[in-house]
Specification:
heterodimer; A: 112 residues; mainly beta; 7-stranded mixed β-sheet; 4-stranded antiparallel β-sheet; B: 113 residues; globular
Chain lengths: 112, 113
């Protein structure tokens, strides 16, 4: 158990819809990262927050957004969903920005 | 930009065989290097890491040495077990920014009794 909690584990929805994925980092971790794992693109970094502030952006679509709340949990919002958004979305957390990242079990998103 | 290239799988080995999974990287600066393992239906677990040249990371019988001259971080284990069957990812984190991870495509290892 990494201590990083992601909910829900599975999400099935339709094209055009909007979903919210939630991540609770390990106790004491200030940094949260979001990654997307798909068959064609592999594991790709989406976005990072540190203590409530956006720190870095990767290959994140404009339809996607995220935030980190004062209690340090984070949410990833995906809107206007397309079939290609079907993937496993991982959250990772670390104490600081140069510490090993610990991953949650992921949220599997299926778009029908 | 940064990139990681690892040997394509799948790799199938008999129990107690020697394992090598090759990993090379391209990066500016001095990245940290990692191996993560993903068991079926689970998230990624940190297996080992190395933060500077010539460092050797080790854990659970697995080893990898940070080779700056060859930009490599090959994963090795002397005697694999059935329980080692998983997908292995090589990754680097940049040293001058967010420390986001850049992953290789993963190598699926199957160990048969």
């Amino acid at each position: 158990d990494s201590g990083v909690t992601q909910t829900p584990k599975h999400l099935i929805t339709a094209t055009g819809q909007r979903v919210t994925l939630r991540c609770s980092p390990r106790s004491g971790d200030l940094s949260v990262y979001w990654y997307q794992q798909s068959l064609d693109q592999g594991l790709q970094f989406l976005i990072q927050y540190y203590n409530g502030e956006e720190r870095a952006k990767g290959n994140i679509l404009e339809r996607f957004s995220a935030q980190q709340f004062p209690d340090l949990h984070s949410e990833l919002n995906l809107s206007s969903l397309e079939l290609g958004d079907s993937a496993l979305y991982f959250c990772a957390s670390s104490v600081g920005t140069n510490q090993p990242q610990h991953f949650g079990d992921g949220t599997r998103l299926s778009i029908l | 930009g940064d990139s990681v290239t690892q040997m394509e799988g799948p790799v199938t080995l008999s129990e107690e065989a020697f394992l090598t999974i090759n990993c090379t990287y391209t990066a500016t600066g001095y990245p940290s290097l990692f191996w993560y393992v993903q068991y079926p239906g689970e998230g990624l677990q940190l297996l080992l890491k190395a933060t500077k040249a010539d460092d050797k990371g080790s854990n659970k019988g697995f080893e990898a040495t940070y080779r700056k001259e060859t930009t490599s971080f090959h994963l090795e284990k002397g005697s694999v077990q059935v329980s080692d069957s998983a997908v292995y990812f090589c990754a680097l984190s940049d040293s001058a920014g967010s420390y986001q991870l850049t992953f290789g495509k993963g190598t699926k290892l199957s160990v048969i009794p």
